[in-house]
Amino acid sequence: MIQFSYTVKDGAGIHARPAGALIKLVRDSKSRVTVKKDGKEADAAKIFTLMALGVKCGDTVIVEIEGEDEEMMAANLKTYMQENL
Q: Fewest beta carbons less than 10 Å away: which of 5, 22, 39, 84?
């Protein structure tokens, strides 16, 4: 399992557009990706659970990746979040 934290810089937080793109990225993975915030967690492949976290600008999330391609997925997720969130 790989875990990293990320502080959201996008003024709107994790809203529908970047959440949808994040889901597309995760959907093709052979690993399970979980996003955690304030004791809540969401499957990153499901938009409603991801949006229910209510992540706003300045919030720090923990991303956990576990599975066959976890190293590649962690690198892809870090890049995506830095460029879009």
A: 39
